[in-house]
Amino acid sequence: MSAVLVSALSRDDFHARADAELTFVYGQQAPDILQRLEALIAQHQKEITCEPTPLWNEQTQMMITYGDSVIEGEDSVPLEALERFMREHLEDTFSAVHILPFFTWSSDDGFSVIHYRKVSPAVGDWPQVRHLAGRFNLMFDLVINHVSRESLWFIDYLAGTKPGCDYFIELPEQTDVTSVTRPRNTRLLAPVSTRRGMRHVWATFSEDQIDLDFANPDVLIEMVGVLLYYLSQGARLIRLDAIAYLWKELGTRCIHLPQTHAIVRLLRAVMERVAPGALLLTETNVPHHENLSYFGNGDEAHIIYQFTLPPLLLHTLTAGDAGAMTEWAATLPPLPKGCTYLNFTASHDGVGVRALEGLLPRHDIDALLELMQRFGGFISMKTDPDGQDSPYEINITYFDALKGTRRGADPWQIARFICSQTIMLGLQGIPAVYVHSLLATLNDHEGVTRTGRLRAINRKRWQREALEPLLEAYSTPTHIVFEALSTRLKIRRQEPCFHPDVPQKIIDLGPHFFAFLRGPLPDGRRLLAIHNVTDRSHPLNLPEAYAGHRWHDLLERIDPEGEKPVLKPYRSCWLVTRD
Questions:
Q1: In what residue span(s) does the Glycosyl hydrolase family 13 catalytic domain sit (predicted)?
Q2: Known binding site: residues?
């Protein structure tokens, strides 16, 4: 694929786009807000060095990790330990790293930010962040929807002083909020004691994460300032955390509101003005058709998460039936120009199940949830508008989620897990691999007991002295999985058919296989990815349209031209041809 360079948005073009979005959101206040925005950009622009670059290519591969997921003892600096681990074990594998929130925080492992511009001393400092940015394209979280109740802004609110006294949404306790979409089962209006007495403030996620009021344009200016600061510190990807809930309007669901989309478009324009080539990612763990809306008309997110993939892949591999996944993948619409998916199976959060709505019958979803509990996981619940609780997330490591099928645990866990990752790596988009998937980490029940948080099951902190023997011993799941994924990542980054812009076509080979074609490229090169999603061997019979070509397997698993080729349980092949 040819590389298309992204040039900076001109001042006039930025002015026109920003004015349109600000007018829609803030009406007559727009000219004043735009003037403030342009002054803010002028203030930061000299500090941001981001040359025009192609958006992505087949070498664009991301690792997701906390700054302290791999540590080297009490005296070491976690960010330095992370850099050493990647240099020693993952050279020429990943181009980008998502360092989960590394700012000072009070809860939710970083997603309750106390100070947006301070690195937590527990993981390092800004020079160490910038050093990492010299080796990898870094993704920072812009935790835009809420702040910690320990933040200076919220302390201002409690005291009734500027500026923070006007940054939050205060409502009477008896306000009817039943129409508001709830991602948790905690109460929406959190009681807080202020100098004016007891008050109730909007808190979508927890009583320690207080939502900001973007109806106040001062809040918008503050967050654009944070965005510009992150870009000046080396961020090349910005993840908008919990962005779907940004704008609140009583009487609506308070999710995906038009004002929210307008602010995403505004942030995109700011980034195109000061940092051409920097990418915007929206985090919206909702059903797929809602998630797609954040591409806008190619003017909102560059990248959205493929949230349907993790739970649907678990269903596919534990049921041994690719039917639902083949049907879903075949319905994915063509990507807008300059937009792509972030494909992943695991992250710091659990496996969301809302994305399965409308894709699987209720009994299949219930069977999956029951199985995940049998494999040591937990189910997190949310409160629906009718007051009933429903599941929204499975808390489990992805490795342990695949320790068996609906019949129970079996000897195929490692092969089944590697199959899951191979499927993810081949699909159209950018692959993102969670550090605990690389390391085949088991459920951390001790972490759940210690913290009291279900998500801790998938957030283990590895000590290098405990991890290295597992990586070196040939028979350990950690070694086998790490070597298999590292090898596939290195193969993948050399294969032009895996460029995110190369089209994808789903091939229905029956319930035993999940298969898709990537290509063709201008020179005719194509890649046919086939995966056996069952615990039995099956003959590989290529459709007539593909059987007459000379294929070569990049994974060196099968000879497709051999007599009666067979794909063993959970094996995959990446077949390429120019014919």
A1: 82-403
A2: 108, 146, 239-241, 348-349, 455
